Amino acid sequence: MNLAAARALTREDWQAMTARLRPETRLLIDGAFVESIAGGEFETVNPADGSVLATVSCATGADVDRAVASARRAFRSGCWARLPPRRRMEILYRWCELIAAQAADLALLDTLDMGKPIADALNVDLPAVIDTVRFMAECVDKVEGAVTSTAADVMHFVLREPLGVVAAISPWNYPLLMAAWKVAPALAAGNAVVLKPAEQSPLSALQLARLFLEAGGPPGVFNVVNGPGEVTGRALALHPEVAKVSFTGSTAVGKLMLQYAGLSNMKRVALECGGKSPQIFMADTPDLDRAVTAACNGIFANMGEVCNAGSRLLVDRRIHEQFVDRFIAASEHAYRPGDPLDPATSMGPLIDREAQRRVLGFIETARHQGARLRFGGDVPSGLEGGAYVNPTLFTGVNNGMTIAREEIFGPVACVIPFEDLDAAIGIANDTIYGLAAGIWTRDLAAAHRLIREIEAGVLWVNCFDEGDMTQPFGGYKQSGNARDKCFDSLLSYTQTKSAWLRIAQPSG
After folding, report:
1. What's the whole-number mean pLDDT along residues 447-464?
2. Is 272 among the catalytic positions?
3. Using one digit for the tens of pLDDT, what is the confidence trace for 325-338?
């Protein structure tokens, strides 16, 4: 069912589809779904009610070896890497069409697996997945080398070639989209891929890979291994036949990926890690209501489980009270937790009970440290059976408090007042992270200075979390080193080869 038809479905329709759901739960290796060698399994749980969705095959190191070997054989055979670019494009376009045609099933899998509201899966995630695959398909025959200027009896050219086997380790907050951000450019560049989805949300990745095969993708080019990061992810990152690992997740695990690369074959490592993104609201913020709406969306969308969530709201003291009053009013009805299968629900549960306990712990710490709770901070009434946390706002926060320094990964906003531009820049940069930032001002000179001085890889001016596929997405400092989405993302899955040809022997 495509997006248009899926958007017309009711809560009862989605519940009926859930009852009929029989998701694939095995590993995908060399074009076939197989059980793990050791027969290990783990459960994936619906965080909305704690029910077990499925029992999934768990890959050990032996399964990772099998998947990497399959990918290596496929790469060396040239069945994908040396396929004519237009043919590779055709398969990727067909893959995109199949994803669009099965949007309802894919959206449902992510909603059940990680609690994402079905409306968000249909209106945010799936369109972005389709855009990602289509964009990368369009880029296939745009990859160019270079011929340099040399002496007349010499020719020098630079080729771009795929790396080989790419390990993609994707997170649970956008299961399908983050997988697409990694897999689509890697495949478009001609690599073979082994994808390890987060163990909390493995189901949509298996369907994504199945559709690639259905589109005509050769066996072994796209493999999926399920399992915990400390076992399956570690085995992939240490594997000597993996040329690159692309990881999205916590900063702590990102640092492990760098260590694993050094302990194995010095593979390339692309990291998109944590964030503590500031939004800076100057006294001359244009259209304060629109800015406040963007602030609410920036922290409460996707339950706050977003790497670039605008969790630190830096507000000029001259408009502080006005901003807070409007934020409270705007948030009252915009984000209410509920059943993720109800199209009217705007906020689902957190990924699991552990995340719920962690977020509630941050909230309690904020209270003890003197921050003022303005709303939320608890579990919604009637939803105690799931991993829910109400949208939460703290004021009276300074940048030394725990909630201003640590990535909470939940729907918790904190307002930090500032006196002037220098103070705003100092607060914004006083963090180990540097993923994104928002700037709100009418003053072009102030905006330009903030763009230059804020240490972040993505900046938005008078908007937040907007963009398209031309926009590089990635951070500074301990937010990582990757750049996703854009054409450079595809190029990052290639390497250059320099060929120096002497076409005439020197005279004499």
Report:
1. 98
2. yes
3. 999 999 988 999 99
